[in-house]
């Protein structure tokens, strides 16, 4: 089994209607600076390659970079930090997605029931809190609506701290898109983490698609 | 037309108890006792090579002597090594179904597993259906059949039970006997070598004597097949599931967060919800739920009103409603006005409605009518029934009953509580809305005329307000699933 790079993972999800952050792939520090100018505002710069599963743990993610110098420095650092095991790498320059609420969505293959779709509470405490609900694939629209209801965080889905309520139709569409993406040939598992709620709309800020090696 | 395998199990023309015993401590004795005492109306045969009669029944030396075509079911209580010959003889006499109660099979180790596999292969080649082995038997009240090696024998009713554990079948049946909400069919799947819990549920779903089903499972075998069967059963009738052996094992500890969060129980829970079954954490909660499904209409929505003639329980019920999927609606203005006509001004004037002891003779039945008929109310929790009858019971057993001529007031109290219970059942039937009555007297004083009348009206009296709310939560959950997925 292998993984697609964050960039490829998000492109796959976007093809199925999942809204992803604005991203540009850069091969060099210069390209990264140009990409950041095009995207505008503060950006995130991440090392990006097909063998990188745990970027944050390895310190390969730099957030909220503002200005050419900061972007250039980060891109140079990250490209230098890549090891030969990481294979062919680039840096991904992404818009910063602002939102207080982070969810996680994904698909995993379970021993007993086969592929299942998940929606959970995201962020750094996601696994510790363990607030997550599953449905077996294939799922219907009603199944996705049930998942949102079952999540047990309904106060979190209303309007809060100046942000509008979560657009439930958009979240349902995101879940259906993730489920549909899992149906593509060779796709074994999907992680969308975090799925940040910006102005009520879910945006995939990072994603990992696990594929069969062949 | 020959009967289907499940008809042979639950509605046999005749039954054979293989391995009937004279020793009252043996399963082979209790099995025959239960079949005879249960009043099964078809022919009953018992085999015992040595004793000519047991419990007044002439025994047969072997299964070969059973008249051809006289029986459909054989209940086997003999050791594993004897079962193959018995199955061959049974098939030869036209018997299509066997319940093997005996233990010593898969649960006992590798040798037992081998014997079990051979036996199932044999049964398939004979065209026989085998339930068990290592199960306590089955109950089928429409057939007055108690083919079971233990007690209890429950009253007839609308609940069907299938379980991977025999003593949890007994637990459901004990609750049924106590509450008066009875059993249609109940079966212990034992090792489920050929027929498993979901196979029984699939049959119960089409059984006209069953209104709701309860099941206890540990392993689920083929997960996808299990899910499909549960979904099909749930589409027909409510299914309440309890799962034992919940482990925190994840699916893939590897790279993905989703995999790490995909514990067996979370995925099982999602599968159950997706399939429309109701999951209960305990047998007690499961019985409350299945009894509610079996005796109440489904709510059309979550809007819940709590009606109480006494304070504290109303507050606890309201707390429970707010922590459920139900909605504790504000008291509609026209309802407030109407209730104001019934009682003195000190009543609560909000939901929960607490009448604060201000009621006269007809207040409670009238209030039940008013709240249940209100278009903004989908369901009612009714509390406070039985309090006066409890006092009556105390007065009756006290030293002043005769000298103070207390019989008239006692009878009045008892009649009143009975009327209240009747009103709850009648108005629920008229309006098609669930009205769940709850009092701890259902457990502490079941012959109190309040809970006793609830039972007499074939309804379930919940043992507490919070348990009634939990059951109503399950009713609404299932009703909503039917709306969304129907």
Describe this structure in words.
The complex is a heterodimer of chains A (214) and B (486). Chain A is an alpha+beta fold. Chain A has two domains: 22-95, 2-Layer Sandwich (Dna Ligase, domain 1); 101-211, ATP-grasp fold, B domain (D-amino Acid Aminotransferase, Chain A, domain 1), CATH 3.30.470. Chain A contains seven helices and eleven strands. In chain A, strands 1, 6, 7, 8, 9, 10 and 11 form a seven-stranded antiparallel beta sheet that branches. In chain A, strands 2-5-3-4 form a four-stranded antiparallel beta sheet, covered by helices on one side. Chain A is globular, with a radius of gyration of 17 Å. Chain B has 486 residues and is of the alpha/beta class. Chain B contains 18 helices and 19 strands. Chain B starts with a helix and ends with a helix. The interface between A and B is medium-sized, with 39 and 26 residues.
What's the assembly state of these chains?
A: heterodimer
Could you say which overall geometry of chain B the principal axes of the C-alpha atoms support? globular
- What is the radius of gyration of chain A? 17 Å
The CATH superfamily title of the largest domain in chain B: Succinyl-CoA synthetase domains
Report the sheet with the most strands of chain A, covering strand number, pairing sense and barrel closure.
7 strands, antiparallel
Distance linking N and C termini of chain B = 34 Å
**Number of E strands of chain A:** 11
Helix content of chain A: 25-40%
| Overall average pLDDT of chain B | 95
What is the CATH homology-level superfamily of the largest domain in chain A? Answer: ATP-grasp fold, B domain
Largest beta-sheet details of chain B: 7 strands, mixed
Please identify the structural class of chain B as seen in this structure: alpha/beta
């Amino acid at each position: 089994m292998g993984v697609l790079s964050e960039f490829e993972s998000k492109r796959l999800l976007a093809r199925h209607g999942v809204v992803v952050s604005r991203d540009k792939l850069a091969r060099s520090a210069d390209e990264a600076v140009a990409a950041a100018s095009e995207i505008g505002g503060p950006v995130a710069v991440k090392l990006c390659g097909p063998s990188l599963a745990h970027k944050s743990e390895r310190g390969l993610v730099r957030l909220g970079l503002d200005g050419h110098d900061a972007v250039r420095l980060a891109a140079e650092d990250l490209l230098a930090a890549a090891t030969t095991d990481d294979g062919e790498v680039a840096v991904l320059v992404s818009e910063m997605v602002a939102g207080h609420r982070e969810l996680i969505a994904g698909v995993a293959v379970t021993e007993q029931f086969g592929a299942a779709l998940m929606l959970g509470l995201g962020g750094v405490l996601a696994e510790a809190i363990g607030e997550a609900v599953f449905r077996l694939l294939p799922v219907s629209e009603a199944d996705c609506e049930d998942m949102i209801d079952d999540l047990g965080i309904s106060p979190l889905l209303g309007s809060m701290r100046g942000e509008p309520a979560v657009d439930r139709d958009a979240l349902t569409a995101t879940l259906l898109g993730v489920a549909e993406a899992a149906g593509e040939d060779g796709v074994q598992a999907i992680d969308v983490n975090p799925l940040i709620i910006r102005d009520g709309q879910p945006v995939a800020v990072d994603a990992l698609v696990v594929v069969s090696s062949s | 037309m020959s009967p289907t395998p499940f008809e042979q199990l639950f509605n046999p023309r005749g039954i054979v108890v293989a391995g009937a015993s004279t020793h009252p401590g043996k399963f082979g004795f209790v099995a025959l006792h239960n079949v005879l005492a249960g009043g099964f109306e078809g022919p009953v045969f018992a085999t015992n090579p040595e004793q000519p009669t047991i419990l007044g029944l002439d025994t047969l030396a072997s299964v070969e002597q059973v008249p051809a075509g006289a029986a459909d079911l054989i209940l086997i209580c003999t050791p594993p090594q004897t079962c193959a010959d018995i199955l061959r003889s049974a098939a030869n006499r036209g018997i299509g179904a066997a319940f093997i109660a005996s233990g010593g099979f898969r649960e006992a180790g590798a040798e037992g597993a081998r014997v079990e596999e051979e036996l199932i292969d044999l049964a398939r080649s004979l065209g026989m259906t085998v339930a068990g082995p290592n199960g306590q038997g089955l109950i089928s009240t429409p057939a007055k059949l108690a083919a079971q090696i233990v007690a209890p024998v429950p009253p007839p009713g609308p609940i069907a039970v299938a379980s991977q554990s025999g003593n949890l079948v007994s637990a459901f049946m004990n609750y049924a006997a106590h509450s008066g909400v009875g059993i249609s069919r109940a079966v212990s799947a034992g090792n489920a070598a050929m027929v498993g819990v979901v196979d029984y549920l699939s049959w119960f779903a089409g059984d006209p004597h069953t209104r709701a089903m309860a099941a206890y499972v540990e392993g689920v075998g083929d997960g996808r097949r299990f899910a499909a069967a549960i979904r099909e059963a749930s589409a027909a009738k409510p299914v309440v599931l309890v799962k034992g052996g919940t482990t925190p094992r994840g699916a893939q500890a590897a790279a993905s967060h989703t995999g790490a969060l995909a514990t067996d129980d979370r995925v099982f829970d999602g599968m159950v919800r997706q399939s429309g079954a109701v999951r209960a954490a305990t047998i007690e909660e499961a019985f409350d739920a299945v009894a509610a499904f079996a005796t109440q209409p489904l709510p059309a929505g979550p809007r819940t009103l709590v009606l109480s003639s006494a304070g504290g329980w109303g507050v606890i019920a309201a707390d429970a409603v707010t922590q459920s999927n139900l909605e504790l609606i504000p008291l509609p203005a026209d309802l407030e006005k109407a209730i104001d006509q019934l009682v003195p001004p000190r009543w609560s004037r909000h939901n929960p409605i607490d009448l604060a002891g201000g009621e006269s003779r007809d207040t409670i039945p009238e209030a039940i009518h008013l709240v249940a008929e209100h278009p903004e109310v989908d369901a009612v929790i009714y509390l406070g029934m039985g309090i006066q009858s409890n006092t009556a019971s105390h007065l009756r057993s006290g030293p002043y009953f005769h000298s103070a001529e207390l019989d008239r007031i006692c009878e009045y109290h008892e009649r009143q509580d009975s009327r209240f219970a009747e009103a709850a059942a009648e108005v629920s039937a008229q309006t098609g809305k669930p009205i769940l009555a709850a009092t701890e007297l259902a457990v502490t004083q079941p012959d109190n005329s309040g809970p006793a009348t609830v039972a007499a009206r074939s309804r379930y009296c919940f043992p507490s307000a919070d348990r009634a709310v939990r059951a109503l939560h399950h009713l609404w959950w299932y009703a909503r699933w039917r709306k969304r997925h129907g």
